[in-house]
């Protein structure tokens, strides 16, 4: 597995996702908080069926939360706080179980 290092530029979350996909780092747990990530949460995250924990808090992520994340039946921790997201947490699937202040 590769190492994600901070840089002076804000990496785009979609680019980080692609890097993780190529290095097969998208299994189980993803803690990506405090990494100055920007961009939007990729809808493709909804296809990571083994994802159990997703924490992208305290970044610069914008846009809305994709409803495709509701397909993540194993997801038990979801933290997107302290970002620039707009709109509610979608009420689809597993996302319905998380508090609105996640």
From TrEMBL:
Topology in membrane: Single-pass membrane protein
The entry's keywords: Glycoprotein, Kinase, Leucine-rich repeat, Membrane, Receptor, Repeat, Signal, Transferase, Transmembrane, Transmembrane helix
Keyword rRNA processing appears in the UniProt entry: no
Chief location: membrane
GO cellular component: membrane
Annotated compartments: Membrane
InterPro entries: Leu-rich_rpt, LRR_dom_sf
Domain of life: Eukaryota
Keyword Glycoprotein belongs to the record: yes
A family per Pfam: LRR_1
Gene Ontology MF annotations: kinase activity
SUPFAM superfamilies: L domain-like
Name by which UniProt lists this protein: LRR receptor-like serine/threonine-protein kinase FEI
């Amino acid at each position: 597995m590769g190492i994600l290092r901070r840089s002076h530029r804000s990496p785009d979350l979609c680019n980080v996702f692609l890097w993780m996909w190529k290095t097969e780092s998208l299994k189980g747990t993803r803690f990506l908080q405090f990494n100055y990530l920007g961009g939007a949460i990729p809808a493709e995250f909804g296809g990571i069926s083994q994802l159990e924990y997703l924490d992208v808090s305290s970044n610069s992520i914008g846009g809305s939360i994709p409803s495709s994340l509701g397909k993540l039946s194993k997801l038990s921790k979801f933290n997107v706080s302290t970002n620039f997201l707009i709109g509610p947490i979608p009420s689809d699937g597993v996302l319905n179980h998380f508090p609105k202040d996640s």
